[in-house]
Design a protein that fits this description.
Number of domains: 2
Oligomer: single chain
CATH class of the largest domain: Alpha Beta
CATH topology of the largest domain: Rossmann fold
Helix content: 10-25%
Mean pLDDT: 91
Number of strands: 19
CATH architecture of the largest domain: 3-Layer(aba) Sandwich
Amino acid sequence: MQIKTLFTLSTLLLVPTLITPTAFPQDKPVAQGLATTTAVDDSYKFESVGEFQVGACKAYSYKMTSQTWRGTPWTHWLSILVPPNVDHADAAVLFITGGSTSSSQPQADSAEAQLFGVIATMAKSPVAILQQVPNQPLHGGLREDDLIAFTFDKYLTKQGDDWPLLLPMVESARRAMDTVSTVMTEKAGAAIKRFVISGASKRGWTTWLTAAADKRVIAIAPMVIDMLNMQSQMEQQIKSYGKFSGQIDPYSKLKIQARLTTPRGKQLAAIVDPYAYRQNLTLPKLMVLGTNDPYWTVDASSLYYPGLTGTKHLYYLANAGHGLGASIAPTVATFFKKSIDGETFEMMKWQHGTDGLFHVKWKGENGQARLWSATSETRDFRQSKWTSQDLIGENSIGVNLAAPKSGWIAYYVQVELPGLLAFKYSICTEIQVLPKKFPFTYPAETPK
């Protein structure tokens, strides 16, 4: 299903109005490095730059300075979309996005505004969109993974404990929550005290760490960030591909992976690897992933999903890479709504039985199960085509997952359940790869 442009739009720009923000320090007990984001920077401020309509949603636009990091002020566009019907005045969704310091003010007719207008209306909750996380380019034009890897190298060479870029990225999200709470107190008379947070890729990474640092976060939906338990992920890439994925070349060039096993590298992982916080991250979690993401091995979740605590769900989008598209909206909106309502997705369990079958059970009525599979001669599924077949079963199925005569095969089971309005949401098992062997050993080569 594709979300189409549904709304006509009108825009009313206002004269910028400076607002005195209120900071809400809401810190969890976390590792010392991540805790460096707890103090509110004196440069934090925001001002109103306009209001506009996105269909039925009233949208408020702000320019926010979240902090000054290593001498550079970080500025962001922050849009707050408020639907006409809000079920819980104390809760909101925060979606963290990217961009650059030269990004223009958000427009009402942008695809992003359209999509989040739909989600806000479906979830009956304000949705805030935070842009420019991280602020970039920095340090000679570096962006994204090149910039993060550069800051990791600075940390590893002991040039300062505040260097890991994920720290100011988390700070950006936390100051956005402060801003949303202040604005909604003014606009609706109620402070936002609970947030569901989401973001994709590096912003998904930020989502995990913000939840570890701030108790206002009640649920998270990190997207296309399949790298928890970082050292094990690096080993599995070597065992699967014989080398690291080309998508993480910025880290490979600086030998970040090899240095994770050093004492300083372990300290870095304790700060930036969300898996280090898994015992405290008991809040509801929906991990949204593409089956063909070129960054990670196809079964990367097997290295961290079993160790996560609390309510947890996987949602794989078949034949999707590092970009997912609007078809995730029904599942994501349903997760947002249920989390704010204090509910969860229906539970799903799976295991390999002694009868040789892969058994999947789920709760909830009118669920439709589907088996997805893909093959590869090399255990590299990044270019593989996934196909599906419907399964017959009421709340449980058993599937015979057989290894191929040559190469490898990957499977997972998806269950669709009734969601918001007439839409359905999906939950999935972990991806199973057969045979259970790897074509390479670790280390297969000297990390580049």
